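Q: What residues go here?
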């Protein structure tokens, strides 16, 4: 029984570490780490759609809500957005990627388009609120107004 428990813990740790691979730091707001990753939906198929995955981790002691909205723009003027979303995070908790519903399909299939600015994604809202009072704690300075 102990061996099974150890095996489950090791497998969970390895899977969690693997899933977090490739995320880049975006911002830290009110003790919430925000990271992002652009990758193909199927990592073994470069013809699969690109996805933007978000990662939120509450490193503080208060339970919070992260409120955000993402806009995605193509180089020919097409635009789509996530709508206003909220993610609840208890202290020490993290949520990320598809498993938490934090992945968004991007335009195109070339990651370089987003690195060069030919295609863009950006937050129009990124803020942290207290989970119980709803009081705004902090807003990211890295948000962009929608034209």
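A:
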């Amino acid at each position: 029984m102990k061996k099974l428990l150890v095996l489950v813990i090791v497998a969970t740790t390895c899977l969690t570490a693997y899933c977090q691979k490739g995320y880049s730091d975006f911002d830290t707001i009110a003790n919430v780490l925000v990271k992002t990753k652009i990758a193909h939906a199927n990592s073994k198929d470069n013809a699969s759609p690109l996805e933007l995955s978000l990662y939120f981790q509450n490193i503080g002691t208060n339970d919070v809500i992260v409120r955000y909205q993402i806009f995605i723009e193509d180089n020919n003027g097409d635009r789509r957005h996530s709508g206003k979303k909220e993610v609840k995070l208890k202290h020490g908790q993290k949520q990320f990627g598809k498993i938490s519903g934090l992945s968004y399909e991007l335009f195109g299939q070339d990651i370089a388009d987003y690195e060069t600015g030919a295609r863009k994604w950006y937050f129009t809202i990124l803020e942290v609120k207290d989970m119980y009072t709803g009081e705004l704690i902090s807003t990211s300075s890295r948000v962009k107004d929608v034209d």
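A: Context that may help when evaluating the design: Residues 5-20 have pLDDT under 50 and may be disordered. The chain has one domain: 23-139.
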